[in-house]
From TrEMBL:
It is an enzyme of class 2 (transferase). GO terms for molecular function: amidophosphoribosyltransferase activity. Gene3D superfamilies: 3.40.50.2020, Glutamine Phosphoribosylpyrophosphate, subunit 1, domain 1. NCBIfam families: purF. Its EC number is 2.4.2.14. It comes from mine drainage metagenome. This is amidophosphoribosyltransferase. Residues 2-236 form the Glutamine amidotransferase type-2 domain. Pathway: Purine metabolism; IMP biosynthesis via de novo pathway; N(1)-(5-phospho-D-ribosyl)glycinamide from 5-phospho-alpha-D-ribose 1-diphosphate: step 1/2. One of its GO terms (biological process) is purine nucleobase biosynthetic process. The gene is purF_9.
Amino acid sequence: MCGILGVVAQSPVNQLLYDGLQVLQHRGQDAAGIATLERNTFHLHKGNGLAHDVFRTRNMRALTGNAGIAHVRYPTAGSAIDHNEAQPFYVNSPFGVVLGHNGNLTNTAQLQKELFLEDMRHVNTNSDSEVLLNVLAHELQANATNFRLDPSIIFSAVSAVHRRCRGAYAVVAMISGYGLLAFRDTHGIRPLVVGSAKTDKGVDYLVASESVALDTLGFKFLRDIAPGEAVFIDLDGNFHSQQCAQHAELNPCIFEYVYFARPDSMIDGISVYETRLNMGEYLAEKLLREWPDHDIDVVIPIPDSSRPSALQLANHLGIPFREGFVKNRYIGRTFIMPGQAMRKKSVRQKLNAISVEFKGKNVLLVDDSIVRGTTSREIVQMARDAGARKVYFASAAPPVKFPNVYGIDMPSRKELIATGRTDEEICREISADRIIYQDLDDLKAAVQKCNPNITRFDCSCFDGEYITGDITADYLDRVEGARAGGKANKTLEDDQLELDLVMSASSM
């Protein structure tokens, strides 16, 4: 999962891009990068870490120009945290192009062979984003007339990219001497929006992963970029767009609404905050159906993304909602957690229970999802240690049983607590007295309620149905094998705690 930005403006954009990265920091904390365009020259700085650690005053001064792109990186399935894979990536042939990408290509190995054997292009890292960049660069060359580009040629190149690339990709790219290109995969799995701002000198345009970036940077939301669509904004501020795929269909990733997106964002016409309220309501209705004689005394969220769901659940049940955990906003990041003992220590350092809210009560803890279960188990124990009489656990999402191959680095199937286990077995694994999962149909209804025009979502981590239709058991085995050699000791649940802390600290 990553965050991307692209801007064409009438004034310098370095500060604008940096501020945008701060807003999208929740989408990636492992690396950050900015590339600006001044006349025909790119200025690029990137590195590992949070945006405020990567960029210093001297770096910002060097990022001159009125157009540029920016990226925050969260490693996709199987990739290690390598500083060489920080984005944006750059190629200089046949046109200077820089590119940032959110998602994951599912046919990377095939494309690497094609690039080497047929396109005569060299890929220097293991990143699928560099593969995507070289595919785009090759198609720009193949479609160009006398090494000159115009919007129609650029859109033809994007059409070729769609024909060759499989998987999820939301892309921003800057073409030297021409302008900003942004496009979205034909399934619309990853989000991408565009906005504008009127200035005394003309109109500025901004493309971003989430609408919250437009809001906070003073841009007016224009629309979501459609699946298969490309937008090109030249350096004079002229806006062009075209559908570049014959068969495009919107299938947004439902996990964006569960956890990854900020609650104040709108994605594909859907309020993220409202979906999370709906999740709490549907979860409450299920609880009342299956457990009408419950003895819950208090509902407590696990900070932060589960708060709206927990609040609505409590309201629907007519039970007090209380904040029972306090987060340490100033703890340093935990880069590697090699074992169970370190994971327990990490949770204890980052969360602390308010004993008065637990002592002698039957508490219902609400989280957005349960992935590996390590964090959930430790939090249940914290509630017991704080004096809870009984500890029940509710998940606003269904059981996570399958890997995500479209840009979220989840554990392997054997590490997912829900794979091969019943709800009762999961309950025992996390040491809770009872567990309540959201039904998948209810999760879909909670999101679709905000935009009935969307009829299908990517729910692959819940149901194992992969939208692109090219995911096999062998493919999952390869991804999990690559992951075991890379970011094997860090799970999505670890990142949830770290990213929540990032957002809390940045709001101070």
